[in-house]
Amino acid sequence: MIAVTILGNNSAVPAYDRHPSAQIVQTEEHTFLVDCGEGTQMQMNDLKIRRSKINHIFISHLHGDHYFGLIGLLNSLALNNRTTDLHLYAPADLEAIIQIQLNAASAKLPYLLHFHDLEGEKILFEDKKLVVSSFKVHHRIECWGFLFKEKKNPRKIHLKKVRKHRVPSSFFEQLHRGEDYMTPQNVIIPNKELTVANSPGKSYAYCADTGYYEPICEKIKGVDLMYHETTYLDALEEKANLRFHSTSKQAARIAKKAGAKRLIIGHFSSMYEDLEDFEIEAREVFENTDLAMEGVCFLA
């Protein structure tokens, strides 16, 4: 299970009670923060999201609407006596920016802040159930997307059958991988008699701020859920291209080419109060599109 809660869906300037970019990505074991625009903490308060659960923060790039809320969050965690390590994944310059802010306030964090430089497409986080990797997008400055993928074994244990054949739990990992079991009497029990096919792991792609950029498609091919910015409606495609942003239909084309199952669109320009046309235009190209409305939780 991967759940994505939208905290902020607007572009550079807050408007119409919409906030700059921020999302919470949750799995069974983790709560991740993706980007941290101004107002992120207030949105967390309103949506009852516990700051203490967040141990990993991903910042896509250093335009202010994606990280100006970060130093306030780091300070709040300190004021709340956090001692658990916190991991921050971001472009290299952010480490010095944070240190300048802390030095100016004569502040010291009571927890360890581990800074991970986003340099090259690579795996950022991995455990037994999840892997998070970065991929390049096409923006005016260095900018990264993030791909969250569940890790699942190809086979799932059939408990009644393994008990019937007295398979020890120490062999379960091999069963998950598809291996047959040999009894102490040297009788081979085929794996298919002890397991069933597992459902594939879920995946979510955060495509950050980007112009129309088809190389993204190969990085997120077949993703269950994807977020793609749509700063402008399609009539302003030329303006979008000049500013390294995307339109509603451009985002939908990327989703279609990537073979995504579902698309959510956000990062709306403050020139638009009504967002309905974004959804209408995107659905003309990719039907399974929804607006990334604040407070809504989407499941991959």
Structure description:
With 300 residues, the chain is α/β, with parallel strands linked by helices. Helices cover 24% and strands 26% of the residues. The protein has helices at residues 40-46, 70-79, 93-104, 159-164, 172-176, 215-219, 237-242, 248-258, 276-285; strands spanning 3-8, 22-26, 31-36, 54-58, 86-90, 113-117, 123-126, 130-136, 144-150, 155-157, 181-182, 188-189, 195-197, 203-206, 225-229, 263-266, 289-291, 297-299. It has a 7-stranded mixed β-sheet with strand order 6-5-4-3-2-1-18. The protein has a 7-stranded mixed β-sheet with strand order 7-8-9-14-15-16-17, covered by helices on one side. It has a two-stranded antiparallel ribbon with strand order 10-13. Helix 8 packs parallel to helix 9 (276-285). It is globular and about 75 Å long. The mean pLDDT is 95.
How do the helices and strands line up, and which of them pair or pack?
Elements: E1 3-8, E2 22-26, E3 31-36, H1 40-46, E4 54-58, H2 70-79, E5 86-90, H3 93-104, E6 113-117, E7 123-126, E8 130-136, E9 144-150, E10 155-157, H4 159-164, H5 172-176, E11 181-182, E12 188-189, E13 195-197, E14 203-206, H6 215-219, E15 225-229, H7 237-242, H8 248-258, E16 263-266, H9 276-285, E17 289-291, E18 297-299
Parallel strand pairs: 3-4, 4-5, 5-6, 14-15, 15-16, 16-17
Antiparallel strand pairs: 1-2, 1-18, 2-3, 7-8, 8-9, 9-14, 10-13, 11-12
Helix pairs in contact: 8-9
